[in-house]
Amino acid sequence: MELQAVLMAAGGGSRMTDLTYNTPKAMLPVGNKPLMWYPLNLLEKVGFEEVIVITTKEVQKAMSTDLKIKDVKMKLDVVSIQEDGDMGTADALRHIQPKIKTDILVLSCDLITDVALHEVVDLFRAHNATMAMLMSKAHEFTETVPGQKGKKKTAEQRDFVGVDKSGKRLLFMANEADLEDGLSIRKSIMRKHPRMLIKTGLVDAHLYCLKKAVVDFLTENKSISSIRGELVPYLVRKQFSKTVNSQKLKDDTDDQTQEKNDGPLLISSRDEPLLQLAQERSCWNDHRGDMSEAYHGGKLRCYVHIMDQGLCCRVNTLAAYIEVNRLAPKLFEEPSVHPSADISERCQMGSDSIIGAVCHIADKTSIKRSTIGNFTTVKEKVKVTNSIIMHGVTIEEGCNIQGSVICSNAVIGRGADLKYCLVGNGQHIEPEGKSKTNILSNGQ
Amino acid sequence: MADSGVIDGPGRKDEIERAKSEGKDLTKEEKQRLRKEKKQQKKIKEKKDDKASQENEKEKKPVTSAAPASQPPTQPTVQKAPSAVPATAPVSVPASEASVPADKPTKTKAELKAERRARQEAERASKQTKKGETGQQAATSKPKAPPSDLQPVVKRLPEHIQVDNPDVLKKLAKKLERQQIPLRSDYGYKVSLFSHLHQYSRKAPLTQQLSIPSTVIHPAIVRLGLQYSHGIVAGSNARSVALLHAFKQVIRDYTTPQNEELSRDLVNKLKPYISFLNQCRPLSASMGNAIKYIKKEISNIPSNCKEDEAKNKLLNCIESYINEKIILAGVAIAKCAIEKQKISDGDVILVYGCSSLVNHILCKAFEKNRKFRVIVVDSRPRLEGKEALRRLVQKGISCTYVLISAVSYILPEVSKVFLGAHALLANGYVMSRVGTSQIALVAKAFNVPVLVCCETYKFCDRVQTDSFVSNELDDPDDLIVTRKGTTPLEGWENESSLGLLNLVYDVTPPDFVDLVITELGMIPCTSVPVVLRVKNVDQ
């Protein structure tokens, strides 16, 4: 077997608590499908037959009842971990280490993309890389976010990503939070790769191909708890560290302990001499202009595929959630109106709206650019524009909902007027209530 | 039954007529098979019955009792056809013969009699077809020596140089579909002289159409195919070593399924892998010889050998093949070249591109303290000479670097030309990187000796006198270069009368080559068929 897929679905959605305090992030509906269905669909399309899903008990229960997830033909091996835990993604990998027999492809449940996966995996295969990851050019979010007064953008910590001339080899990765005085690049990197492009406007898709040796390394180094936060920068730095490149045996005890720690990372395959011979005899080099051999003799290599076209979005903020609801349905050729929905004839429905299953839409309603979830009831003379309505919602007559997010099982009273609001789970909005740019929920 | 005799009769005649209409194809196949059958006639007769029953289990046609008997004469022809031969002619024959008896209603009473009679008829038919074929041969072909004396077999045109023939393409597509390997589509406008060759684009790798945890093809082979198509493993020796390394992994991960023999099943497992690698990049002559060797070793494994033993034996065979034919041969060639004073003090040696063997020789000579300098000639678009330059300069050899357009300018300084070879053909022609024949020609004009260094495992029994009939077309987009921000060839696909040609190999006539240095010694170019014959006799 070549690759095992691991889906991380235990995340809490810490940056959008208004949405996730009742529904776990993995089961948030996007285009009337649960969020984790999208990465599962991506894996299924490419040809995976089994996926290891790491998630919480709550999500596991929700998965067993969800129809869309039951539709997935792959075999899902669900591993549940404690909810309260500070279990990072790397800790989770350590937890499932006995199940891992080959190289792995780690995905996050909040990734929605239409990338051609073979681009990432080909980098991993062709260069015998230790890690290959996916990144994408970030797009500005154009929709107004409920609850956000004005266009204030929170200054998010930027990621600095350094790639080489070809744009494929990953040379440098740091988050702004970790750089206190400024960006410092080691001389050894500059000597080997004199031309480096540093990019900041990239979104990390949290899709990683890792060698099995990395998982073994994690079991020995228990201090690493997050893949993105700690493991990836560590591997990128390790590409250029001296102990990896030098082949002389060192007698210093310091170096020996470090070598022990890195031991699993550098485990060579059985036929290493043959591979060496093939590389020696091959007239290929990945760089020109200096005296070193291909890959500068380094055994640890990290690659990145940067997508510039297509959709790649991580749903970890409210703005992203709204953006994705707009774009995700366009990925699939599905009818926008579910066959079991009951829509009256005098309803005006735009073509870019989606109606879920078993809905009741009454007369004289107008639904434009919106997503309506399953089991929702919309009564007469309701105007819904640019909104996301989740499952089981009841909207009484005469309401006007614009640019809002209404969570599951909410009830909007008669004649309410909501603009750019977020209504939490199970909330009741009084009749004739007016709300603008507000977050109405229990949680927080 | 009387019916079976009547129907078999026209069936036999149909076969002979079809054989006549297929013409030379079947007769040449029959020649091959006749020779083998004469040597092993008794064994064939025994095996025929076994194979007939086996073939019928494998084939899903609704075969009646009379049909199996009529199939044996065509079964051996189907089985022994080489894999490159389109098997439609023999296949259509058993199909028609199967359909004819299938029309008859089966009668229990005379079934056994019919079977017996049909079998007798079939054996008579096979003998008659053999006689009929030999009769036809004598009639139609020129008077030749009896077939058993003819050693070299006339081969069919391989598929990869018949790309403009839609029938051949269809057969290839069918074969790949059967092996569950995706078909790689050609890219871009092909220059008319080379439209019979494949031309692929590096941006459309074959892995696009494969499932990601590849189950049909072993992951080591997928990785190898990717490395071939990206050019990460390039050069005849490197490709062979990488191929054998991947085969070692395949053999390690292989388990014999039940009711199968390792010797037969493993060979069948390797066939789709080889097709896949061929689709990624056409196989080189050295790879072809390595594959032949492995297949022979696998089929020579005795059936009573345990699986672990057999696997160990195969792994050791591969190791020893690489050791003998590549590593030690390189050492022997270097020793030969240095001791026989082919590299002497004060020499100015010209090399072209990056040949691992030539670089090895030069480095060894420098270690033995010969004083010489090297001129590295390079050409676009590969610019492999830069890599050769790096390796030589790293050792400390003083080098000059020119492009191939300056070769006639620099040749008056040169005392010897060392060339590497991709393959040595049976008529003494040297197949090497495109540009080699130019250099040999100019060197001849300047009276500079040209020495080709080549290991014997790269000798192949193909014959070619020009670089058109069989070659490799690389990605035409490699020729596009951006200088100072402008890319002149940017929209070349839109120009209807513009074609980009990126040839990989060319063929140098033996008149321009003065000596070939092999591990068997220094031989003239025309002695290649002798070496091949000696190798075949050994095996």
From TrEMBL, chain A:
It is found in: Cytoplasm, Cytosol. Residues 341-432 form the EIF2B subunit epsilon/gamma LbH domain. Residues 246-265 are annotated as: Disordered. Keywords: Cytoplasm, Initiation factor, Protein biosynthesis. GO terms for molecular function: guanyl-nucleotide exchange factor activity; translation initiation factor activity. GO terms for cellular component: cytosol; eukaryotic translation initiation factor 2B complex. The keyword Protein biosynthesis applies. It comes from the Eukaryota. InterPro entries: eIF2B_gamma, LbH_EIF2B3/5, NTP_transferase_dom, Nucleotide-diphossugar_trans. GO terms for biological process: cytoplasmic translational initiation. Residues 5-137 form the Nucleotidyl transferase domain. The keyword Cytoplasm applies. Acts as a component of the translation initiation factor 2B (eIF2B) complex, which catalyzes the exchange of GDP for GTP on the eukaryotic initiation factor 2 (eIF2) complex gamma subunit. Its guanine nucleotide exchange factor activity is repressed when bound to eIF2 complex phosphorylated on the alpha subunit, thereby limiting the amount of methionyl-initiator methionine tRNA available to the ribosome and consequently global translation is repressed. Belongs to the eIF-2B gamma/epsilon subunits family. PANTHER family: TRANSLATION INITIATION FACTOR EIF-2B SUBUNIT GAMMA. Component of the translation initiation factor 2B (eIF2B) complex which is a heterodecamer of two sets of five different subunits: alpha, beta, gamma, delta and epsilon. Subunits alpha, beta and delta comprise a regulatory subcomplex and subunits epsilon and gamma comprise a catalytic subcomplex. Within the complex, the hexameric regulatory complex resides at the center, with the two heterodimeric catalytic subcomplexes bound on opposite sides. This is Translation initiation factor eIF2B subunit gamma. It comes from Astatotilapia calliptera. The lineage of its organism: Eukaryota, Metazoa, Chordata, Craniata, Vertebrata.
UniProtKB/TrEMBL annotation, chain B:
It is found in: Cytoplasm, Cytosol. GO terms for biological process: animal organ development; central nervous system development. Pfam families: IF-2B. Residues 10-32, 46-62, 104-133 have a biased composition (Basic and acidic residues). One of its GO terms (molecular function) is translation initiation factor activity. Component of the translation initiation factor 2B (eIF2B) complex which is a heterodecamer of two sets of five different subunits: alpha, beta, gamma, delta and epsilon. Subunits alpha, beta and delta comprise a regulatory subcomplex and subunits epsilon and gamma comprise a catalytic subcomplex. Within the complex, the hexameric regulatory complex resides at the center, with the two heterodimeric catalytic subcomplexes bound on opposite sides. This is Translation initiation factor eIF2B subunit delta. It comes from Astatotilapia calliptera.
